[in-house]
Amino acid sequence: MTQYSDEFKDNIIKQMLPSISKSVRQLHNETGVSEQTLFKWKKQAKSSGLGAPSGNGTSNDKGTFRDQ
User: Fold this and answer.
1) What is the Cα Rg of the chain in Å?
2) pLDDT at position 52, please?
3) Digit-coded pLDDT (tens) for 8-61
4) Residue 64 has what DSSP assignment?
5) Stretch (H or E) spanning 68
6) Nearest to 48 by CA among 20, 10, 7, 21
7) CA-CA distance, 41 to 39, in Å (whole number)?
8) pTM of structure
9) 3-state SS record for 5-48
10) Integer Cα distance of 15 and 39 in angstroms
């Protein structure tokens, strides 16, 4: 089983957030991390509140992950 550093994982998760919104497939192709692992990281990030709205009140600030 491959171990990834927290820094690497955080960087990948940031790329899934709305400002970049890379798909799991695209990140898999770029990094070689399995799609299953990427979906797991995405799910964990969602449940911990990453990707929650920023709360600035704008109607187009969804602040959520794009579903792939």
Assistant:
1) 12
2) 54
3) 999 999 999 988 999 999 999 999 999 999 999 999 999 988 765 444 433 334
4) S
5) none
6) 10
7) 5
8) 0.72
9) CHHHHHHHHHHHCCCCCCCHHHHHHHHCCCHHHHHHHHHHHHHC
10) 13
